[in-house]
Predict the structure.
Amino acid sequence: MLDLLIQNANLPDGRTHMSVAVRGGKIVEVARGLQAPAHQTLDAQDQLLCPPFVDAHFHMDATLSYGLPRVNQSGTLLEGIALWGELKPLLTAEALIERALAYCDWAVAKGLLAIRTHVDVCDPRLLAVEALLEVKRQVAPYIDLQLVAFPQDGVLRGPQGPAQHMNNLKRALDLGVDVVGGIPHFERTAEQGALSVKLLCELAAERGLRVDMHCDESDDPLSRHVETLAFETQRLGLHGRVTGSHLTSMHSMDNYYVSKLLPLMAEAQLQVVANPLINITLQGRHDSYPKRRGMTRVPELMAAGINVAFGHDCVMDPWYSLGSGDMLEVAHMGLHVAQMTSQAAMRQCFDAVTVNPAQVMGLNGYGLQAGCFADFVLLQARDPIEALRLRATRLQVYKRGRLIATTPAATSALQLAGRPAHTSWMAP
Ligand code: FE2
């Protein structure tokens, strides 16, 4: 006897009229037109059933703090960092946990069930680290939360010397933080940035951890720390375990240099997270016209065989005043900024908020195949492209085969002169 049988589902790979059978929290079979006794049966009515959305780049310690203690006037990354520095001494664990849990509720409602969040380790109290470890424990039944030890102010740039922030970062890892972070472009010099990449990759290799660095989040075409990140990944044998986040300087780099860089990144099996909502607003602020787009070279990276995900990065914090945990909004922006408008490219953008970030995070049992966890989302859309176009309603969200969130279908009732009353949900 099955626990759950979903019938008439469209899948992201294009298969239609599919059934998904669930027992014991796992998918046991995916086939067309399956008939079997089940405690619960759901007719998906030709709507899209997809694995959960995944956000491989977020800042949960800062989320929902917009306006505290003031708003970012210039809209730049650097004022955001300064503003976060003003807010940090005012943080309390209780308020931070409350805001993070509120965001996790939003995430579940949007079918976002796995999040990699960076957590600032520069505060010697490690207050945010302890708070987010508590949040991770509390949300574990419904969200896979992965933490990155992130030295926001520069790991070698501590006011009491280069060991200060590195020691904090190691203490955070000792407490159970999962991934080694970094921010080489924010160290005092390019040399210090390169040294930080070397030291942090060595630390990850020693401890058997993954790496995810904020890297080259800059409009400076000479910000080339991604080259060092690829080199250290290759040297230390960290293939497939290292992620370069943002990489916005690649947008401004010389094309010849990029033609050398891409194969080096592919050779190291570097993974990439672009954050389209944030970098289209933060970058290019020093330009007059034309203004550069603040996103790395997503289609070119994908064409080079590099795994690229889109991250949300920020929601209502010192860097970004909008956002709602909706990864379809993130992918929608990424699609536009990268001009990924072909049918195949739009499907790649859907992958960039589902399977690609799952690979970045190294999630086990993710997907819609037999043997995977029964975690999925039923969307009010028939395929991934329609889901992107409509930022489709998440009708039902399942975790381990259990329904954990529902949202009513977005349907408008129209009463127009000369026509009978009818409904519309923006699909032809
Ligand atoms: Fe970030």
About this structure: Residues 57, 59, 118, 214, 313 surround fe (ii) ion (CB under 6 Å). The two ends are 38 Å apart (CA to CA). The CA atoms of residues 69 and 381 lie 40 Å apart. The first strand starts at residue 2 and ends at 10.
